[in-house]
Amino acid sequence: MKQAQALAVAFALSAATLSASSYADGGWKGIPHLDRVFVIMMENHGFSQIYKNPNEPYLNGLISSGKVSYATNYFAVGHPSLTNYLEIVGGSNFGVLSDKYPNWHNKSCTPYLTSGHPILDNDAGIALPFPNDTYVCPISGTGSDAATVAVDTFNEVDCNTATPPVCSNVLANLDGVRSIPQAKHITGMSIAHQLVHFGQTWKSYQESLPQSGADLIDYSNGTASLVFDTATAATSIQPVLTPSTPDVVALYAVKHNPFAYFADIQGGWNPELSLTQTVGFDQLFADLATGNVPTLSFIAPNQCNDQHGRGNGEAFCAFDPSDTGSQSGLNAGLIAQGDVMIERLVKAIKASPAWHQGTAAMVIVWDENDYSGVPKAPPVGTPFPPANQNSVVVTVETNYRQSPNVASKVYYTHFSLLRTLEAGLGLPCLNHACDPDVHLMTDMFGY
């Protein structure tokens, strides 16, 4: 009860503060009211790897035929995946610079907004200046998130054993020049919280989610799952499988379900703001068929169909052999598989009664470029080459646009996308979506 009351207080404070700041400049001019939004999340490939890729014919056909608007200057914010997912739905990394699993239902750990110390992904054995958790503490409260530095030298990097260690691989955040300082007035909630607060609805549609639902599930192949701090489902099978801990292909991954990292959604005190709103793709296609879809449909294909890939996957799901920012070295089968999934989803959405009622927008966006193994950063103050910036593809299609679709050259980020969705849904901006340099995507979402 105390946690629910604290959430209500945070809502009241944030709604008053954010609405005042967001409407002070004349409101959401240029963004039409949206009755519903579909956001399709894809994985780990940059703009230059997807745009005009011959193994991505459906998406590139939408672009070349002018059926969608697309951005040529749109940037993921940081690394790794979960960080970007949180930034898209919550306008902040909330101190999470990691893909680690949730510390499910843990009420005793200190939220990173309170401690001001981020949790990092670091497989190189570098000593960190503060304790690094094994799991992600549930997000809650208010406080400070983590700064976004221009060049990431601590995630997905190889470092030698020198003292101090020297890291040879680097990743560009944003464009490799811009940075975002730590913010001290971050509220631990997402667009889902806002929607529920203002009487609207949401669902997180996750392909290959097991029938048991999302609670306690770190990853799953759709049946067998890795459950937090317990043995896998395979241990209940008799005779015991060989090996007893099988190599489960992680199709569903909680790191692609950002809402599951919030304390109140884990707690489920409000059914409308709980893990019951995370459902599988069987429910997605059923909802689309009937037109009974929520205000926000957050759609995440599994890790074979979102172009992430798996090390233990088959040929069309295997990781890219080499990922340096170009199309060379990619797993052509993985790219093609993702394109087929995009086609299936787009056609199902456009065939749904929901697409033809009121105003609707469909967004397809990649989370980050994930150029693991980039050998050298450019000189300080010099931008990364375009192929190695954290630039990603985003497309927008609406059912109301009357003017031709555009190839936008405006500088946008994931925060721009959140702010624009909030604008269309009549919500106040949240966290970094309120930053003065975050622009509404009026050219892509307008009439």
Number of domains: 1
Oligomeric state of the chains in view: single chain
Major sheet characteristics: 8 strands, mixed
Q: What is the number of E strands? A: 19
Shape: globular
Write down the secondary-structure element order: HEHHEEHEHEEEEEHEEEEHEHEHEEEEHH
Number of helices: 11
Which band does the percent of strand residues land in? Answer: 5-15%
Tell me about this structure.
With 447 residues, the protein is of the alpha/beta class. It has a single domain (2-91, 190-445), classed as Alkaline Phosphatase, subunit A (3-Layer(aba) Sandwich), CATH 3.40.720. It is built from eleven helices and 19 strands. It has helices at residues 2-23, 47-50, 57-64, 81-90, 112-115, 191-197, 263-267, 281-290, 332-351, 414-424, 442-445; strands at 36-42, 69-71, 74-75, 96-97, 119-120, 142-143, 151-152, 171-172, 186-187, 202-206, 217-220, 225-227, 252-253, 278-279, 296-300, 360-366, 394-398, 407-408, 412-413. It has an eight-stranded mixed sheet with strand order 14-10-15-1-16-17-2-18. A three-stranded antiparallel sheet has the order 12-11-13, with no helix packed on it. Strands 3-19 form a two-stranded parallel sheet. Strand 4, helix 5 (112-115) and strand 5 form a beta-alpha-beta unit. The longest helix is centred in the N-terminal third of the chain and has 22 residues, at 2-23. The radius of gyration is 21 Å and the shape is globular.
